[in-house]
Design goal:
Blueprint (H helix, E strand, L loop, with lengths): L8 H7 L8 E2 L1 H6 L3 E2 L6 E9 L2 E3 L6 E3 L2 E11 L3 E2 L4 H9 L8 H8 L6 E4 L5 E3 L4 E4 L8 H15 L9 H4 L7 H21 L4 H17 L6 H16 L2 H13 L1
Parallel strand pairs: 8-10
Antiparallel strand pairs: 1-6, 2-7, 3-6, 4-5, 9-10
Helix pairs in contact: 5-7, 7-8, 7-9
Length: about 260
């Protein structure tokens, strides 16, 4: 329990578990914090990866060079709600007491403001989600994110989901009841993350960490869709429609069509 926020695909892997607490520990950390994991509790997977840059000599030219090698590791984590006696309150209070100032990215704010007939956006809690039932998007407090770029990346993801509402683009992955990790669920997640990538590109959010995490997230859902070779093309088209809707282009085109018809 280092106090650092999980990022990228780990946000999804842990966020979908349904626990109230946003804090996670390894089996060893639970013991170090004076508690233990309850018998029978199942761990959730988390992923750690980074680029290694070992220096060496090119065998052909004899010149020194630096290579980039990806390092990927898997760990198991338990939510503190799965533990007994974990004395984490002092650490939690220290984390929450750290002052954070959120600096809005104006181009991102303008893109969100241009989303006509947008869902309501509220902040609070530890999870980010789109709720079609009342046409709303909920995110943790802005200051809870590691950076403004990370905040807008998650916001764009949820806003792309919201374009699938029956009052907008009516995507089956949003309008119909679907089972977690089913084909339609996987397809909708793929659309949302691809659309979020389009939105980031439009507002100039260029972060290597976000690009890498997004690629890992997309790769995970693409594996779930491996039997549907058309999905990449279909998802790309749906993500573009969603992005156009958010930036108001779809609404403008609809109005133009109505004027021409009149």
């Amino acid at each position: 329990m280092s106090g650092k926020e999980y990022r990228g695909i780990n946000v999804f892997l842990l966020g979908c578990q349904g626990y109230e607490s946003p804090y996670w520990v390894t089996f060893k950390q639970a013991k170090e914090l004076g508690g233990s994991v309850r018998k029978g509790e199942r761990a959730s997977p988390i992923v750690f990866w980074k680029w290694l840059e070992p220096k060496g000599t090119n065998p052909e030219t004899g010149e020194k060079e630096t290579r980039r090698i990806p390092l990927l590791r898997y760990f198991s984590a338990f939510n503190v709600d799965q533990c007994d006696g974990v004395k984490h309150r002092r650490l939690v209070e220290a984390i929450e007491a750290q002052p954070k100032v959120f600096s809005p990215i104006q181009r991102a704010e303008a893109l969100v403001a241009g989303y006509r007939s947008a869902p309501s956006i509220t902040h609070g809690g530890a999870k980010a989600f789109d709720r079609p039932a009342d046409d709303s998007v909920t995110l943790p407090a802005r200051e809870a994110f590691e950076s403004p770029e990370a905040y807008y990346s998650v916001l764009f993801h949820e806003l792309v989901h919201s374009t699938g509402h029956r009052s907008r683009l009516a995507r089956p992955g949003v309008t119909e009841p679907i089972r977690f990790a089913s084909h339609d669920y996987s397809a909708e997640e793929f659309v949302a993350e691809m659309g979020a990538s389009f939105c980031r590109a439009m507002v100039g959010i260029d972060s290597e960490d976000l690009v890498t995490n997004s690629a890992a997230y997309l790769a995970g859902w693409l594996r779930a869709l491996r039997k549907d070779a058309r999905m990449l093309v279909i998802a790309g088209a749906q993500a573009q429609k969603a992005t156009d809707w958010i930036r108001g282009k779809a609404a403008e085109e609809a109005e133009s069509t109505e004027l021409l018809a009149a």
